Amino acid sequence: MHIPYGRQSIDEADIAAVVRVLKSDFLTQGAVVPAFERALAEAVGARHGVAVQNATCALHIACLALGVGPGDLVWTSPNSFVASANCARYCGAEVDFVDIDPVSFNMSVTLLAEKFAAAKKTGRLPKVVIPVHFAGQSCDMAEIRAIAHEYGAKVIEDASHAVGGSYRNGRVGGCEYADIAVFSFHPVKIITTGEGGMAMTNDGALAERMADLRSHGITRDPARLADAGEGAWYYEQQGLGFNYRMTEMQAALGLSQLSHLGEWIARRNAIARAYDGALAGLPLILPRVAPARMSAWHLYVVQLAAGAKPTRREFFDAMRAKGIGVNVHYIPIPWQPDFQRLGFARGQFPAAERYYERAVSLPIHAGLTEAQFDIVAGTIRDFLG
């Protein structure tokens, strides 16, 4: 038996929703994508959603919509997938990182404030800050927004891990503390569209700009056309965009999956609590959720204590040998060879590096059965006990 760290949950209703689209007149640019956008926006409390092919596309058009371009600077977290940084580079901007808090593994508010103060002295402030809601737990967005706005920076929440999570009294993605928030619908995320993503915003102009960018920069809106008298066929490319459109089949799957969001978040939280109890007393550092937050628990990451035996590699290999699909999230982005060519070096972001050297992601997904959980927890206890 192989127990993966993450896995999609697909039922007959999901399959039927996709089949209905396949039998319909529109496979792209029909009514289902807008319906999915409206439904998710309502679910998280945002005014607008812009669906795209994946979260990387969403991050890219979010940066472009906020005017990121050559000569600009964007800051993000070193503890993330490379897309959180690459989106700035796609725009011709430079990227830098703010180290993480060693408890939440999210961007450190203290270090962010210090970095902004230092950057003001040198005159090299970022245009955009991209905090990442690692593992499904929201960053301290009220503090991040206050700091960023003090220095004139915009905020994009990389909420790829966190659909269904909450912060203070609102849902992640509601954009109370950000200009734009981005979700991912990759199969190991909370809900899936196969591949897919969505950018959420409360700013109608930003939503319009991102909608243009995902579709070649083209509009058919008569109110925006330079020459609206040509006929119903007429369209204009008013800026350079991309083909980042989500298909109707993807949106149908996402819309069907969305009906399970509450129960799946509850299930992931129950699994996390069960891990907390089952792994207590072992030489592991267990994840913690900060006050006023509900994690979406995309990941449940443990850390082996510093200097512990067995090593992280021995633990990882032993679990894989037993069919338990543990994983590691993430190798610090600045350690990647492509980023080292930009001048980054090991030792620059010590909290993210210490975290990475000890971290292992355990299986957690809505379809994880009680029997599978018992196998995972029991195997870990046997190995470390």
As a percent range, the share of strand residues is 5-15%
The percent range for helix content is 25-40%
Q: Give the integer mean of the pLDDT values.
A: 97
Query: Which oligomerization state do the chains in this entry correspond to?
Result: single chain
Using only CA atoms, what is the Rg?
A: 21 Å
The helix-and-strand class reads alpha/beta
Distance between the termini: 23 Å
Question: Biggest sheet, open or closed, and with what strands and sense?
Answer: 7 strands, mixed
Which strand order spans the largest sheet, edge to edge or round the barrel?
A: 2-10-9-6-5-3-4
What's the overall geometry? globular
Extract low-pLDDT stretches.
none
SS summary, helix count: 13
Task: Please trace the helix and strand order, writing H or E for each element.
Answer: EHHEHEHEHEHEEEEEHEEHHEEEHEHHEH
Strand runs, count: 17
Question: Key features?
Answer:
385 residues, alpha/beta, seven-stranded mixed beta sheet, three-stranded antiparallel beta sheet, 17 strands, globular
